[in-house]
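Review form for a predicted model. The reviewer records the input and the model, then writes brief findings.
Reviewer: anonymous (R2)
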Amino acid sequence: MAGPIRQAKAMAHKSRVLFSVFYIGSTLTTLVLGIWLPDDLSFVVIVSLVVQVISYFLYTLTFIPFGRKILKKLLSMTY
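Model under review:
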């Protein structure tokens, strides 16, 4: 377990700052859309949730040793 200051420092590390910004941005976007969009546009919130889950997965991979290398290798095998 890490405290908030230690977590913020880890998130600001040069190897994961991009993924941290993507994750925080997608989380805030989902929250804002979920609160202020009318009910007939709920599909936009669902799309935002999917983006948020993907960004969380990528953010989590930055904490796993060689996580990004494994992801790159898996993606290169599929394309």
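Findings: The two ends are 37 Å apart (CA to CA).
Further findings: The mean pLDDT is 90.
Recommendation: see findings above.
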